[in-house]
Amino acid sequence: MARIAFVNGRYAPLSESMVNIEDRGYQFSDGIYEVIALVDGCLVDETPHLDRLWRSLSELKISEPLSRPALKLIIREVLRRNYIYDGIVYIQVTRGVAPRDHAFPQEAKPSVVIYAKRKPLKKLLQKAKTGVHVITVPDQRWQRCDIKTISLLPNCLGKQQAVEQGAYEAWQIDQQGYVTEGTSSNAWIVTAQGVLVTCPASQNILRGITRDRILALAQSCGLGYEERLFTLEEAYQAREAMVSSATSLAMPVIKIDDHMVGNGHPGDFASVLLEAYCLYMKEKSVPVPGLRRS
Ligand SMILES: Cc1ncc(COP(=O)(O)O)c(C=O)c1O
Fold first, then answer.
1. Contact 280, 213 (CB under 8 A)
2. Mutate which of 153, 206, 249, 251 to test ligand 1's pocket (most atoms within 8 Å of Cβ)?
3. Which of 140, 179, 186, 198 is the S-S candidate for 208 at Cβ 3.0 to 4.6 Å?
4. pTM of this prediction?
5. 293 within domain boundaries
6. Domain total in the chain
7. Which strands make up the sheet holding 111-118, listed edge to edge?
8. Which of 119, 142, 157 is at the close of a domain?
9. How far is the CA of 175 from the centre of ligand 1 (A)?
10. Ligand 1 atom at minimum distance from 155 CA
11. What is the pLDDT of residues 143-170, one digit of tens each?
């Protein structure tokens, strides 16, 4: 069955979906994106994801491509047309098509691409039972990592290094030796004293929607947490570690570089938070009408 994408007002099979070679996303990475998880036919935290999409547009002065209700309708239609029940929806907006010139075009209509793919939650939960390995790489990115831009080359280089070393993710380390975040996830540790720690929201990290949800869940579960910088040295000594994102949920980390984290098994904080997150998704997400388990 061909996958269907929405591209600039048209639904078409992926193989027939085209963008103009002078799209500024293609030539300059001049665009932004969002990824929203669909679990059991429900979009997880759609509202904060769309809030962040609007914020990214505004930070890059890209005009609003569609009204929010229209975007929500299209997201749902893409999910229905692709018969997706567990997976992700990808939304990308670029500044649009214009003759190649670094400065913004006087008039450009933003380009919108929305497509979706299956991603079974079961596999992810299986992985969470054993935990994953992360490596570390220098943080080589720009100074506006808070914007979810499609400009992801340093992230791709880091992730590729992780893949080549058999790891799940690469944690990026800034010039002062602090862990900023993963290439596509936020980074967490639990200190020897039992405090959950993640990097504060700033221009140095993408403020993950999952990160914020986990902080709220930590609070409601009575777990102590701090939003502060932590060094790689501190991470090596941590009792537990974790990564979070819409597609990794709260994934326990059992090895950082060659250092075993804790006893080398997913710890209590990670287990409690993953369970709380799964419960949150189940209880608080609203079903998309017309989706059926496939
Ligand atoms: C660099 C980076 N940090 C953090 C995240 C996690 O964000 P979220 O929880 O909103 O998926 C992502 C997700 O793509 C990311 O690319």
1. yes
2. 206
3. 186
4. 0.97
5. no
6. 2
7. 10-13, 4-7, 111-118, 87-94, 31-39, 42-43, 286-287
8. 119
9. 21
10. 1
11. 999 999 999 999 999 999 999 999 999 9
